[in-house]
């Protein structure tokens, strides 16, 4: 009886979760292929005129092909930010895990603070202006790294806790320096959690809307999420083009999550168990 109730509860939860995801997604897809007049109704009516190619063309050509530039910018931003997050987070987690003490406790407090304390937009803009990186891609990359570092450090540290200290001692006896020890011995063992950090951080950075909006205004460094403003104005919104834009910029992270979902869960589970 208990097993039957559990199966029923799991089925209901699965149906609700599927409905919550699929209903908005279906509305988005249907609206994306309608003409502008019918799209303003925002309903589930079948499209009277299928304008798939026309809507895609208009979205890509809008504002001198800003979407294509935005894809390039988002790719550069994601690759550079995730690479720095992985390297810095893994190194910091290794040091924090191996060297406990008052300094380590303070560092752990700062790492947790990075997850709890909300980011301050105005002081960050002042800092970027002071160092000459406001409205630049390097400045935005540093912001993404700073905001994503705490979460990655926690994942890496939980996984590193399972790596035996005897490996460190054996490598040091063989003459390895600190950096060589980390990159030759420790880092290759962190592959499961590294894949998890890469995938989760990539989706987070690629889908980020607030940071590019505030720290890199203008079309030159626009990312894909900021292009959503292309089809909205104070008095009019082109819903068909807006939803088509959402479809085009949702495809890469959605495919990434679908194909690598097992690796994400495996990396998090391994870190949680070994931590």
From TrEMBL:
Keywords: Cell membrane, Membrane, Transmembrane, Transmembrane helix, Transport. Its main location: membrane. It is found in: Cell membrane. It comes from the Bacteria. The keyword Transport applies. InterPro entries: MetI-like, MetI-like_sf. The keyword NADP does not apply. Residues 71-260 form the ABC transmembrane type-1 domain. It is a multi-pass membrane protein. Pfam families: BPD_transp_1. The chain crosses the membrane at residues 12-33, 76-96, 108-128, 140-160, 181-206, 239-260. Belongs to the binding-protein-dependent transport system permease family. This is Carbohydrate ABC transporter permease. It comes from Nonomuraea rosea. The lineage of its organism: Bacteria, Bacillati, Actinomycetota, Actinomycetes, Streptosporangiales.
């Amino acid at each position: 009886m208990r097993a039957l109730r559990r199966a029923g509860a799991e089925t209901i939860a699965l149906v609700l979760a599927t409905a919550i995801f699929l209903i908005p997604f279906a509305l988005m897809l249907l609206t994306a292929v309608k003409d502008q007049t019918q799209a303003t109704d925002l309903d589930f009516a079948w499209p009277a005129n299928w304008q798939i190619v026309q809507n895609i063309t208009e979205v890509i050509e809008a504002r001198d092909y800003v979407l294509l530039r935005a894809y390039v910018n988002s790719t550069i931003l994601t690759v550079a930010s995730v690479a720095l997050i992985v390297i810095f987070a893994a190194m910091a987690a290794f040091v924090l895990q191996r060297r406990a003490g008052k300094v380590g406790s303070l560092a752990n407090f700062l790492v947790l603070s990075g997850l709890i304390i909300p980011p301050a937009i105005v002081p960050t803009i002042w800092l970027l202006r002071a160092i000459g990186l406001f409205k630049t891609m390097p400045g935005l990359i540093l912001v993404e790294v700073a905001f994503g570092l705490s979460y990655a450090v926690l994942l890496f540290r939980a996984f590193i806790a399972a790596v035996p200290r005897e490996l460190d001692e054996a490598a040091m006896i063989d003459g390895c320096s600190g950096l060589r020890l980390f990159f030759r011995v420790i880092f290759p063992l962190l592959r499961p959690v590294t894949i998890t950090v890469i995938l989760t951080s990539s989706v987070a950075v690629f889908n980020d809307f607030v940071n590019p909006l505030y720290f890199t205004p203008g079309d030159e460094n626009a990312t894909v999420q900021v292009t959503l403003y292309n089809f909205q104005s104070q008095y009019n919104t082109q819903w068909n083009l807006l939803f088509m834009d959402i479809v085009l910029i949702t495809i890469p992270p959605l495919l990434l999550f679908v194909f690598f979902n097992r690796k994400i869960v495996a990396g998090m589970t391994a870190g949680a168990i070994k931590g």
